[in-house]
UniProtKB/TrEMBL annotation:
NCBIfam families: PRK13240.1. It comes from Floridaenema evergladense BLCC-F167. Residues 1-4, 24-39 are lumenal. This is Photosystem II reaction center protein Y. Belongs to the PsbY family. Keywords: Membrane, Photosynthesis, Photosystem II, Thylakoid, Transmembrane, Transmembrane helix. Pfam families: PsbY. PSII is composed of 1 copy each of membrane proteins PsbA, PsbB, PsbC, PsbD, PsbE, PsbF, PsbH, PsbI, PsbJ, PsbK, PsbL, PsbM, PsbT, PsbX, PsbY, PsbZ, Psb30/Ycf12, peripheral proteins PsbO, CyanoQ (PsbQ), PsbU, PsbV and a large number of cofactors. It forms dimeric complexes. Loosely associated component of the core of photosystem II (PSII). PSII is a light-driven water plastoquinone oxidoreductase, using light energy to abstract electrons from H(2)O, generating a proton gradient subsequently used for ATP formation. It is a single-pass membrane protein. InterPro entries: PSII_PsbY (IPR009388). It is found in: Cellular thylakoid membrane; Membrane.
Length: 39
């Protein structure tokens, strides 16, 4: 594989992972708040 492909895709993968991490963190907090309100 060409190293230029890795150089281009690595920052995109890092940014995507960071976005998923942040969205997931808030989604889990919101789901826990919703479930605790239901109980």
């Amino acid at each position: 594989m060409d190293w230029r492909v890795i150089v281009v895709l690595a920052p995109l993968a890092v940014a995507g992972g960071w976005a998923v991490y942040n969205i997931g963190k808030y989604a889990i907090a919101q789901a826990q708040a919703f479930l605790s309100k239901q109980a």
